[in-house]
Structures are given as structure tokens and as C-alpha cells.
């Protein structure tokens, strides 16, 4: 059967995928839910030095040390930055990339470039006032099990130039039921329109931005369509 590696978004850890992973495993698929450095149960490793390269290497090492090939690599939200970088470094281990309402950078873009100046200003203000200048706590800060997002990670541009990575199947799943007031709504509408114009495979799911916790069955069924 297939092999899934599921990459978290911001403020979460591998724990957020538990219900989705359970359904994929029940369907016979090998499924990994690694936690990125400084997040979740690895929060004790948080430091100002964590950048996008750190998180990319987290996942590259899962592929290498678990000896995985033909992987369906899935990223949600900020995890899209990570899976793009993983494909640049280890395309030979991947079968396809799936972006679940995830950031999909072009060459030289950072997460900051994709979210725009208004979001960047909010992010950096919260880092300055609540996170010692280098980390951004979840809003609200006392949310259960949520850990920080790192400024250095969000500001780092990513080189997207590997032709072998470009040849992999890319699928973007647009979560289309965000509230009109959701600041993420126009951001992901822009990304969805761009990747469709670039010829990516495209799907939609009528949900808000973070369904892996409250709609894991729907997310798992969607992922099963890809293998």
C-alpha cells in the first residue's frame, strides 16, 4: 500500500494528525506524523536558531532513516513551505506532494512573501511583545498543546529550482469554507489561483483552514483518493 508522511502546520505538532493517521493506517497505509523541531513534544528544543532549513531537515531525515520511498508527502498550512523544501532535497524518495490549504512558495519566496505585509506586521508585533522577539505564541496563548512559530523560519526564503522536484505530481487542496472575515481567505485564494494557472492538480474541500482536528474523516478520505 501507500506511504504517507504528514507534516504539521504552525503552532501544532505531529499530535494534530493523530485521527487522520489512524484512518490512513486502518486502510493499510504506512503513515508517519513527525513533529518539527521546537513544536509539540519537541518544544524543549525551541531556540532562536530554528529556521526553515531546520524543519526541512527534520523531514528529510525521516525519509532517510525510515528508508522511505514512493512517499505521498502532505503539508497543511505552513507545512507547505517544509514539503516544498524537502522535495528540493530528496525528490527521489517522493511520489507526490499534497498541499492542504498550504503555502506553496515559488523560487526565492518566504512565508512572509506569501502572507503579505499586514500579516507580517502582526506576526512580528506578537513576537516582540509575547515571544522575546524570535517566536510567536498561539492566539490565544493558552490553547491546549499549541507551541510557537519561529520568526527566523517564516522570514527565510526558499530556493525552488530542482527540476526533479518540479516533475513530481503536485496537488493543491483549497479549503473553501472560511468565514469572509478570515484573514487567511484571500491569501489562499491567491495561492489556489496561481497553482491552478501553473497546471497543478486541484481539489476543494468545503471546510475552514484547520479541519484535521474536527473533520479528520473528511481529510483522510480525501487523502485516500490520491493513492
What would you say this structure looks like, in words?
The protein has 227 residues and is of the alpha/beta class. It has one domain: Rossmann fold. The chain has ten helices and eight strands. The chain has helices spanning 18-26, 52-65, 79-89, 111-115, 117-130, 151-155, 163-166, 184-197, 211-214, 216-224; strands at residues 3-7, 30-32, 71-76, 94-100, 135-136, 149-150, 169-175, 201-205. The strands form two sheets. Strands 2-1-3-4-7-8 form a six-stranded parallel β-sheet, sandwiched between helices. The protein has a two-stranded antiparallel ribbon with strand order 5-6. It is globular, with a radius of gyration of 16 Å. The protein starts with a strand and ends with a helix.
Task: Name a few traits of the molecule.
two-stranded antiparallel sheet; Rossmann fold; 227 residues; globular; 8 strands; alpha/beta; six-stranded parallel beta sheet
Amino acid at each position: 500500500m501507500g506511504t504517507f508522511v504528514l507534516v504539521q502546520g504552525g503552532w501544532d505538532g505531529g499530535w494534530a494528525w493523530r485521527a487522520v493517521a489512524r484512518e490512513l493506517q486502518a486502510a493499510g497505509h504506512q503513515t508517519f506524523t513527525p513533529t518539527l523541531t521546537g513544536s509539540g513534544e519537541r518544544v524543549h528544543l525551541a531556540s532562536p536558531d530554528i529556521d526553515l532549513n531546520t524543519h526541512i531537515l527534520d523531514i528529510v531525515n525521516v525519509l532517510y532513516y525510515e528508508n522511505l520511498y514512493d512517499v505521498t508527502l502532505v503539508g497543511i498550512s505552513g507545512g507547505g513551505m517544509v514539503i516544498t523544501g524537502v522535495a528540493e532535497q530528496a525528490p527521489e524518495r517522493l511520489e507526490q506532494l499534497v498541499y492542504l490549504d498550504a503555502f506553496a512558495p515559488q523560487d526565492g519566496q518566504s512565508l512572509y512573501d506569501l502572507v503579505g505585509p499586514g500579516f507580517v506586521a502582526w506576526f512580528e508585533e506578537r513576537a516582540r511583545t509575547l515571544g522575546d522577539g524570535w517566536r510567536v505564541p498561539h492566539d490565544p496563548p493558552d490553547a491546549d498543546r499549541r507551541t510557537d512559530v519561529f520568526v527566523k523560519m517564516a522570514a527565510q526564503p526558499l530556493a525552488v529550482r530542482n527540476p526533479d522536484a518540479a516533475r513530481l505530481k503536485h496537488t493543491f487542496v483549497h479549503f473553501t469554507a472560511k468565514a469572509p472575515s478570515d484573514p487567511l481567505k484571500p491569501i489562499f485564494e491567491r495561492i489556489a489561483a496561481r497553482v491552478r494557472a501553473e497546471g497543478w492538480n486541484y481539489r476543494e474541500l468545503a471546510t475552514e483552514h484547520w479541519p484535521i482536528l474536527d473533520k479528520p474523516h473528511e481529510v483522510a478520505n480525501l487523502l485516500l483518493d490520491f493513492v
